[in-house]
Amino acid sequence: MNIILLGxxxxxxxxxxxxxxxxxxxxxxxxxxxxxxELAKDTPLGLEVSxxxxxxxxxxxxxxxxxxxxxxxxxxxGLLFDGFPRTVEQAEGLDAWFDSRETTLDAxxxxxxxxxxxxxxxxxxRTCPKCGKIYNLGTKPPQxxxxxxxCNEKLITRDDDTPGVIWKRLQVYKDQTEPLLAYxxxxxxxxxxxxxxxxxxxxxxxxxxxxxx
Length: 213
Ligand code: ADP
Ligand code: ZN
Known about the structure:
single chain, alpha/beta, Rossmann fold, five-stranded parallel sheet, two-stranded antiparallel ribbon, 9 helices, 14% strand, globular, binds adenosine-5'-diphosphate, binds zinc ion
């Protein structure tokens, strides 16, 4: 089974992807996480993408596709994409790649959350630099202010979760990623979930939609 999660930055793709990939035995592919890892390790790829990430712009399609193909060439599990594709060009690249592997896309799940809500979530998001745990100052605060519950590390605000960059990311989503809804809507595998609910109930709705797939 191969699945794509679509939606605004901050719509909860990462959270749902973790739950779903575990439940269904899929390999969770987050292009954002891949780029941040490379950046943290100071690799040549990390250097190449750093300017795009900090500005909230998209990494060029050619590079994204190249990185994914090389990372996934030996993966035999089903794939759960989170943050990819983000442009029609990437979606076409993915289609071609699926064809070449003689596999298909089984579901595209759109997490629908209003723009004002995602803007607020991104502004309130804090991350643990050590274990990756994600907090929200409004809805899921840490027990001690600014400290990770699990590892006592000081929480950080992601570089691209600052007001100017959040605004830019939302614009980029509307310009370049939203057209994917039309691209996939006609595929017969398109599902929409109300992403404004609590994470557990979103997860339950998605599980119900995929039941019998
Ligand atoms: P979010 O969905 O919260 O914006 P991600 O972690 O998915 O966060 O992405 C962070 C950044 O990484 C994006 O703003 C972009 O610069 C880059 N990026 C991630 N995935 C892609 C992609 N498929 N194509 C181009 N750039 C990407
Ligand atoms: Zn932690």
